[in-house]
Task: inverse folding
């Protein structure tokens, strides 16, 4: 996960009274040679799915169902520590998950906090 995993927040229009929908996404991508490994994650985690874009030479395991992320993926990643800058993305992602779990994503303040977390994650993260 530290090398090929990705924790990201997807925003959609019009899902709550503030006009913002939030979805957490966990993804691990590999060259198509790693297809069997990625498919095995579906069995291992008992959630998510495998996909391969038609014109690409890579595929990915992806989990987007909030209850699976909150009850399976987050506890697994807490038990098996994420290393490097990805650990910061994981931390921000978990903060967003906690806001969603409390229902705060349905408020202006909560939506704003999640948007702010997203803005500082992954390629947008300022390295110390």
Result:
């Amino acid at each position: 996960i530290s090398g090929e995993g990705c924790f990201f927040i997807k925003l959609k229009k019009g899902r709550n009274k503030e006009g913002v929908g939030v979805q957490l996404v966990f993804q691990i991508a590999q060259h198509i040679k790693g297809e069997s490994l990625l498919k095995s994650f579906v069995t291992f985690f008992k959630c998510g799915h495998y996909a391969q874009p038609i014109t690409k030479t890579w595929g990915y395991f992806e989990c987007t169902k909030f209850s699976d992320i909150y009850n399976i993926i987050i506890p697994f990643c807490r038990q098996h520590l994420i290393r490097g800058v990805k650990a910061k993305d994981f931390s921000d992602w978990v903060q967003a998950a906690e806001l969603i779990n409390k229902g705060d994503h349905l408020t202006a303040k909560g939506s704003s906090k999640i948007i702010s977390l997203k803005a500082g994650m992954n390629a947008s993260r300022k390295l110390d």
Notes: The chain has a mean pLDDT of 89. The first helix runs from residue 35 to 45.
